[in-house]
Design a protein that fits this description.
Keywords: Membrane, Transmembrane, Transmembrane helix. By secondary structure, the protein is mainly α. The mean pLDDT is 97.
Length: 130
């Protein structure tokens, strides 16, 4: 099977994407808000939790596919995938208006950044032999 390692992380990330989307959609429906957040802090937080996920997960998964297609060492793909999954799982719990420096937010973003850097190195090494 092609892209077996990437698939291992893409599936739970897709489930998390749907959970975050559902939270936004149900809150919008309950508040009768179609566009924006209508000044509701809770809705705004949920929108940003979902948005932040969308800003990080796709690019890392795309880079993982490139690296895996280039025969990157699976351990580095697992490191990148695990960091991304852990980071994206805990980040929404720390992304709150009440505490912008919440430890889970910092850990979530740091994990995602490390996942991105790890897989970027894999792509450079496997694509250009550096």
């Amino acid at each position: 099977m092609l892209f077996q390692v990437t698939a291992l992380y893409a599936l739970p990330l897709a489930i998390l994407f749907l959970v975050l989307w559902f939270r936004v959609t149900t809150t919008r429906s309950n508040l009768k808000v179609s566009i924006g957040d209508a000044g509701d802090t809770g809705l705004h937080e949920k929108i940003r939790q979902h948005g932040n996920f969308v800003e990080w997960a796709p690019i890392v998964l795309i880079l993982m596919i490139i690296a895996e297609g280039n025969k990157a060492d699976a351990i580095w793909l697992h490191v990148s995938g695990a960091l991304l999954l852990i980071g994206r799982l805990i980040h929404p719990f720390g992304l709150t208006a009440a505490n912008p420096a919440h430890p889970l937010r910092i850990i979530g973003n740091t994990s995602s950044l490390l996942a991105t850097l790890t897989v970027m190195v894999c792509v450079v090494v496997t694509s250009f032999g550096l």
